[in-house]
Write a structure and sequence with these properties.
Helix content is 48%, strand content 14%. The chain is an alpha+beta fold.
Amino acid sequence: MDFDWTADDVAYRNDVRNFLAEQLPPGWNGYDKHDLPRYKKEAKAFCTALAEKGWLTQSWPKEYGGGDASPWRAAILSEELWPIGEPRGSQYMNANWIGPAIMFAGTPEQKAYHIGRMSKGDVFWCQGFSEPDAGSDLPALRTRAVRDGDEYVINGSKIWTSHVGIADYIFLLVRTDPDAPKREGISILLFPIDTPGLDIRHIDGFVGEQAFHHLIFEDVRVPVSCRLGEENRGWPIVQRALSFERIGAAHYETARLILEDAVATAQRNGRIEDPEVQTRIGEVTALIEAARMLTYKVVDLRAQGLPPTADSNVARVAQTTALQEVGMLAADLHGSASLESGNDADVRNVLAYSVAAGATEMQLDQIASRWLDLPRSK
């Protein structure tokens, strides 16, 4: 793997930075998610501008509105967008894994309808995965979809669902065969978030306003034509999609910015002279760079057209470990003053990042079974 960026990649990164300077106001620090209509409007405008530049879905095939660009371009874009507050809103999921999942398993009609809108930056999605009794153990989901003629009738609930407040569509996992083994009998449904029978409840929490929702499905009727892939064969599609999701956000860049801010605080309050603090800073710096390199390995595999491997899980664990450690260091160096002033959003957010796309424990389980081929306990 070549660790040097090409001249074209360096030029592209500079172009992205200039684009951000034009599109975002000085001092921009993320959208105001208390005002969801404005948030959605501004995120859509940003994505439309990004699409007009040919960058929103640049690594997609040209037949789907992409540019056949190397996955490295998408990685560079993520490194520039994620740490400043992800101006794409939830549309980063469209480009990263929802769109590719539909390309992989969708019908011609599904591709024609959904992919075109995504490549134009015209639609927002959320994912219905975790459940009250099936969080990181995703295959244990129990939300049922029962076939009734040309429709599925859905009953159950999803929890800790993000981006619901601005979503137009949901990528929902349901159980269509309750008697099948845990990783079988799962199907995927794609449908509008405002479908009758879906009750959306906001979950208050310390991560941030509008961060999570509880979705309750009561006799929600969805056409069979909304199913992605074969009935009861959704799990392989989900596994493939999750391998894309786990490295789609450049969390190591977020960790780097949090570290820089914490180090600046330590320089101001004199704690930078403490040898123990210096050691911790060095350790966290090493973790961040390890996460970067392990993520780059996955991007490199993707650039070669190779199928997903457990490298995605390894990279995800490295990223969340770096985030957790930098979060604890930042909390220590900032002290109680940051909590009192309300300037602790980054420290709080690392907790959510560590659970999103599967908890660290689940990632380690996947590494043990898929990478190390260790036996499962009886």
